[in-house]
Every structure is written in structure tokens, then in C-alpha cells.
Amino acid sequence: MMKATIQQITHTNKEQFENLFNYYLYELSAYSQEDIGTEGTFEMEDISPYYRDGRLYPYFITINDKNVGFILVTSPPYVAEAVDYSVQELFVLPKYRGANIAKDAVMQIFKLYSGRYEVGMFKSNLKAVKFWTKLISTLEIPVSVEDGLVEIGGNVLQTCGMKFTVSCESICN
User: Fold this and answer.
1) Rounded to whole angstroms, what are the CA distances from 124 to 8, 120, 121?
2) Which of 36, 67, 83, 168 would you label with 154, given CA atoms 20 to 30 Å apart?
3) What is the 3-state secondary structure (H, E, C) of the chain?
4) Cα 160–Cα 164–Cα 165 angle in degrees, nearest 5
5) pLDDT, the chain, mean
6) Rounded CA gap, 98 and 75, in Å?
7) Are the C-beta atoms of residues 87 and 69 closer than 8 Å to each other?
């Protein structure tokens, strides 16, 4: 069984992060309805704050020292009021899915950063909705779920947001 670890993304490995992020945007385009830009890649917002701002917590997800995905966590002022952390993005390359790698990474994040969480996703991204629903119910912690809307490139898309609190008591057993 493969055991995932997390490794902080820094300025020194930013190129690999940016390349991996483009694969993530490609996958997400099935839900975000975004098109590629003139360069043949997805137009990315500036993601450099992830490895420059101390209130952002970017990690590669690794298996045997190989980067197979990433998890990006934000904290105030990048989160809603009454929220301590948000898992903004979670991505695992297709080859490594179904082996609890994303769950391992999320649990490591929860152990590092306990507090009030918010996680948002496209409602049409059934794999993400199922992943988070199953994980939260496995942890047996209360969750509130809110539906919302987001506009991306003129398309109005349905979202699903989950709020829950993670403490060491609920996950360190």
C-alpha cells in the first residue's frame, strides 16, 4: 500500500507546481467550462502567492519522493469570516487515485492545522463531492453544507460548500 506524504511547495520547486497546476486546470475544465488560452494551456491566475505568502500553505502530495499531486490550504484573510482554513485545491494525478492518497494528504493537513474549515467544489464534480462527504462522515464530525453559485467566464455554475471543525480529538486517534 502506498503511503502519501506532504512536502511544502517553495519558490525552488515552483515550476513543477505550475506545471502540475495546469494539469489540474485541465481536469477542472470539465466542471468550470473554461477554455485553453492562445498558448495551448489554461490561463492561470498568478499562483506565486502560494509559495510567497506565509498565510498560504501549499504542499505537494508525494509517493516515494515523487510528486503525484498537491493540496493548497488558505487561512485569513483568504477565507470567509469565522473560518480558519480552507482546502482551496486538492489534486492527485489519475494514475494514483483510488489508493487513499488524497485522504492521507488531507489527514496530514488536518493534523498540522486544526480549526474551522471550509471546502468548496463544483456541484457537478461528483467525485469531489463524494470524496469530501465520505471523509467527513468517516471522521464523524458535524458538517454544514451550503449550495451556491459562481460565475466563471460568463458561465454560472453550481457549487457545494462544506463547513466543519477539525480538532486533534476528532482525528488523532
Assistant:
1) 30, 12, 8
2) 83
3) CCCCEEEECCHHHHHHHHHHHHHHHHHHHHHHCCCECCCCCECCCCCCHHHHCCCEEEEEEEECCEEEEEEEEECCCCCCCCCCEEEEEEEECHHHCCCCHHHHHHHHHHHHCCEEEEEEEECCCHHHHHHHHHHHHHHCCCEEEEEEEEEECCEEEEEEEEEEEECHHHHCC
4) 160
5) 92
6) 28
7) no
Please identify which residue in the block is written with the cell numbers 460568463: 154
Cell representation of residue 69: 499531486
Evaluated on CA atoms 33, 46, 107, 95, the torsion sign reads: positive
User: Cell numbers at residue 89, please?
Assistant: 485545491
Q: Which residues have C-beta within 8 Å of that of residue 166, sequence separation ≥ 6?
A: 110, 113, 114, 115, 117, 139, 141
- Residue with the three cell numbers 491566475: 45
pLDDT band at 1 (very low <50, low <70, confident <90, very high): low
Q: What pLDDT is stored for residue 64 in this prediction?
A: 92
Does pTM top 0.90 for this prediction?
Answer: yes
